[in-house]
Amino acid sequence: MFGSVSCASQPSSSDLSVLFQNDGNWTTHATKPSYLFVNEPTPRHLASETCAVYGESLADCEALPGLSQQLSYQEFIGAIAESQLFWVASSNATVAATSNGTLVQDQTGNYPVICTNTAPIVDKVDTDYSVFPHVNISSNGTTFEGLRDHIAFRFAGIPFAAPPLDNLRFRPAEPWNATDYVDATAYSPACLQYGYFAGNSYNLNPWGNSEDCLYLNVYTPYLPAAASLVNATSNREPLPVMLWIHGGGSTQGTGSDLTFDGAGLASRADVVVVTFNYRLNIFGGLTLNDDVITGNYFTSDKIVALEWIQDHIRAFGGNPKNVTIFGQSSGASSVYDLIMCPLAEGLFQNAIVQSGGDGHTESAENAANSIAPYIAALCNSTGTERLACLQSLPAETLLNITHSGVTLWRAVIDGIYTLNYPLAQTGLGRQFLNSVNMITGFMPEEYQSLGTTVLAPNASDFSVALDTLVTNSPSLSAAQAGAILASGLWQISNETYTNGSIGYTNVYNASIRAATDGFMTCAGAELAMIGAASWSYQSMWVYQHSRAYALSYYDFYDLCTFPVGEPETPYYRCHSGDLYEVFGTYYIFDQPLRAPEDIFYTNAVQDMWGSFARTGNPNVPSEYLKARGYESTIAFFANWTWPSFVVYDPQVAWIQYPGPGYTTLPDQQQCGVIQPYMTTT
């Protein structure tokens, strides 16, 4: 369909924006109108030709009233002048019109051009990208060829580091050796792993797996004019950049997981979203506690990705001086790793930690001791000789060690990338951390999904259930289980509770809550308090989600979401239940709209995350919301403000729609029972 424009030979000399009014209703994304805005003063006789360059036609003037909100926002950000005229079509003629569609008798002016955008939407994992129109941008001598879709521009499979193969295996990442041209029209393979993204058995990863996996993806609603062209113009400020670090226990996952497709968030929040792969399991985390195989290779990957952003993101519409790192689960732990890492200084300004616990750092000695017997069986030598042996082995041989579950593959204290445990280093104050504004938060029942099927919902004996968790999961120690039983704080009640309750209506509820506290919540709450008490961050904001939507493939026992049309049905707000809400990617996985509040809640979360990326503050300015026509979030903030988290007033945002509120750090009395038995991590 787009064969005539599938190979854009030159980067655009004009600012390009996709105009799409993202109201959050994912069920109608594909049918909502979308337009391509070419923001360059253009004479009338070239207007139609300008659209044709992109394989499009002039938009009909009757479309302009529906574009009023998008054009109002362009005026709000200074991209166009007040009362700007545009070239559009009327009865097959090129005409000048105002933003409300009023035709103006002007044949001689030079105005921006509004074109159709007939590009498809990405609405499934195995989307056929061959039918999408192409777009080129240039950065530092490299042309990147990407795609335009229905709601944003996307560039996939961009190399950001040298392939970690051969003598670069088990070595810190090295920067990408730039080339003249990068084909960014297809996703790259995920890193080597077991689990959901090993091959495509779960229909999540049609791109395969490879040890050569250090690639990133960029999603943006705006591409600036090519700076290398003499007549280039740029009428707006660069956008905030949000670098997403995927979770998966540092053993599985990929930045190309379309749960994290950044087009929706980029469109709604007007940001540039970057997702990327980093080495996993043994390839990213092997340390043998010597000065040769030192570990933290996955941390080096993340730093090199951030350095790529500094070098190239402006060409994609992003501001390299306003970068937010955000992640969930082990990706959130990686956010802590980067905040503590001296080598990452100055590469980001804001950080969001979603269900990150306390960072999960390991001593190099413990990590090496757990893996040493497996390595000795393959390469019974030391130092550089052992490294050379390991570099010569087939990748699958090394991956098999990962499958044994021998270690958790955490960041290790090496004195280079990681200096100390997060609790200890955070307690030293902001002079020992990279300067950031911080958001951190929790899901109420994290361990229901984290625990997979370790514990059955029909568990009837609390003591037996705790013993099962101790034996078959890392959530609780035997000492913690004993303290929980002795405390009497986890009483089983017959009372029926609503969705917002944290009461323990049965043994399973109490057990899941205890495991959640022991594995994640208590440690995360302690780190938040230490951060506040030590003034470790420029600003700090803490939340608890009170609404969740389970991932399509990550809902054991079908208990992490409520049925369609039954929002009062009790359910668990599980680990990863916030990911669709942050990225708005329900439609890619054909997820139903359970209730209208799903839309409004997702809108509020995306608007707050975007505001934080712009300003370091999640409270969205009302004038911004009005300019964008975001009525549901205007209502969300009508009688509420997210309070900053400070040690003398540690308020937590209780996020719900409608009616957000305030709470405190969760389960602090219970944490007082569990924490004395926690080991340093």
UniProtKB/TrEMBL annotation:
It comes from the Eukaryota. Pfam families: COesterase (PF00135). Coiled coil: none annotated. Its EC number is 3.1.1.-. Keywords: Hydrolase. The keyword Protein biosynthesis does not apply. Residues 152-620 form the Carboxylesterase type B domain. The keyword Lipid biosynthesis does not apply. InterPro entries: AB_hydrolase_fold, CarbesteraseB, Carboxylesterase_B_AS, Carboxylesterase_B_CS, Type-B_Carboxylest/Lipase. One of its GO terms (molecular function) is hydrolase activity. Belongs to the type-B carboxylesterase/lipase family. PANTHER family: CARBOXYLESTERASE (PTHR11559). This is Carboxylic ester hydrolase. The lineage of its organism: Eukaryota, Fungi, Dikarya, Ascomycota, Pezizomycotina.
